[in-house]
Amino acid sequence: MTKTRGGFSRGFTRRSFMATGSAALLGSTALGSGLFSGGLAYAQDFDLMATSGEPVYFRGWQFRTDVVQSNVDAYNERMNGNVDYATVTGDYPSLMETTLIANGDLDVLYANPSSAVRYMGGGWVMPAAELPNGQEIADSMYDNIREAWSVNGQLLGLSYFVSVRGTLLANLQRLDEAGFGDNPLPTTWDQLYETIYALHEAGVETPFLPHWFAEWFGISWGFLFEVMNRGGQVADAETHQPMMTVDGPAGATLEAWKRLWNSGLVPEEVLSYNEAAYIDAFRSGRYVFSPQQIYDIKTFNDPAQSADVAGHISLLPGTEQSWGLIDSAMYLMTSRDRPDALTDDVMRFTSWYGYKDENGDFAVANRWLEENMLFSAYRPVMESDAAREAIQSSVARPEDYDTVLEVYARTPYPKGVWNVVWSEEFNVWLREKLFSFLQDDLPVAEVIEEANAEITRLNERYGI
Amino acid sequence: MARLASPDTETAAKTPATRRRGELSNLQFALVVTVPVLVFLVLVIAYPLGYALNLSFHDIRFFGGYSATWVGLENYADVLSDERFWNGFLLTVRFTVETVLLTLGIGMALALVVRDLPPRWRWLRALIILPWAVSPYGAGIFFAYLGRGQTGVGTALANALGFDTSINFITQDLVVEFLALGAAWNMAPLVAFFLLANMLTTPPRLYDLAKLDRMSRFETFLYVTLPPLRFTLFVFTCIITVLSIKTFDYIFTATQGGPGSASSVLTYVLYRTSFQNLDLGYGAAMSFYLLALILISTGIIFFTWGRREARR
After folding, report:
1. Which in A189, A224, B111, B310 has the greatest CB count within 10 A?
2. pTM here?
3. In this structure, are B31 and B110 located in the same domain?
4. Residue B37 lies in domain
């Protein structure tokens, strides 16, 4: 086995790389001469056919498992693969982390950037930069995404999806019913809150469903994106030092939350929702505005999935400020102790699944875009006609297509608190503190002071 | 003249002694029976317990290279000044007391109902065990749906009665009671089954005598039905106390410790400390306080109730 500090094979073994190169040359020659119509496994610059016969353990969270299984089946069938796919239920980042620590059966996994940075800090993952086509993959990505997904200049993983969590969606039908149909949609958080209270005065019982649900990406992410949308930062992107102030965007966010909570417009049960319940609540049609995933515009406008609101869900324009934050996920390769031949298969599968298939197509990324409007980090995927068609078929109004791109282009990424090893710990702390802020009516200044102190403590603990 | 024993008699006399020598002494028999069990216990309990104890004296770090720094009793002292620990401790006690009372109450009620079923309805006795067959994970999801105003039983009932309102049980004030009810729903059938088995061994003539004495239904329950059940109730009080204190998966799936931290019982705080923050040394120290809580609780139940029942 080729072992290194992190316990993984550095790129393909020399023998497999030579075999791959020779096979690729033969394959391309055969294709060029028209003598061989199969063996398109060489469309990338290395052979994607699995060779070890050993299982490659691929784990992810539960989202369209039917699509994932079908993609995996296609790989196994066409590339002689033996990929074992399963989902992990529960607290995904923690479960993955303990599996990685235990050197468990795990080769490829989904991860958000914050988790990926932490796993990298533990030495449990093999960066995508170590793929034979790692540079090509990095060059295909949008610069801002590549930067968000890199540590010390090394790209950590391949693109699963890039989305905007916190896109402000509006139920146009409810606005019309309340007599607000002719008013322009709010363009800032302050305008949004004013509209919410005006709607309530006009008789709408629940005008707003805030991003305050119980998942690990719920209330804490809601705070992060509102602070950034208002022009602030929770921590510095480079030094990771705290940056929140009472009279700045963080203070304004908490003041707005306190007023909203004390007004009684938000049912307490929202605080215990999981993501499914949160989505169900908005598609029930009871709420007028809500920050949601940008790709769920498709879900909400699909009559088969959201009969009560389909065709009426639009989004607030990003002309004056951003909405939400960049929510993305990667396919990561682990660095667990395993034979070189298996590590090579892990690389083959990851490249096929997370980049291009044996025909040179972004098959998996294109499918996600078409079926679920999951955006990709790859420029060729997002700039294709298929992408335009996928988005246009998912929005309520033709002009929303441009708004989607406008919002997408402006969305910030919380590098200061996500691209740092203590990211998950701070997230857990922040989630609890924000719930306490609402339920126990804590003072704004106290919460901000404690949040800054917690970031300082974590920086000291990890020597940052 | 001394009588000489014949060779046959001699052999016959020696045989039992020879057999006795081949037999195991009481001590040997006890060792043969218990040593494998003790070895097994050492492997599955003592080793992880010792490992956790060792962890609790260290500050464990995984990032920037694995390290374990000896800190002595510092983790134990820090736990005692941790607000999250005390909040979790109080919630655990509240959840446990309520779950035990509800489980025993519902179990007893179920047992009484199914005991008196007419013969053609006795097949229902088999059905009452079904909730117990649901995993705590499943029960958590089930009760999360039941408790929420959006999907729950409270809103459904209110709407059925003509009220256009949403009733949510997963609130800061009610969530522990609601969770205790769910845990009781899950565990009470087992209690009911054992109590029913006990009740069916009570001689029917005792009930006839109670009628002759003109006892009310409550007096009959108190003086005829209850006495033979007391030891079973004591055993289940201990079992449910332990199960309630270490409940995690049910609460995790039902409320994720929320809303906010309103149902963050001690096991949930431990989970966050050890598996989300990866602070394994501190988490291990906290887990020994949890172990102490279990031992003290069951000890109190035994010394105040169990010894009395054993003497009867």
Report:
1. A224
2. 0.79
3. no
4. 24-70
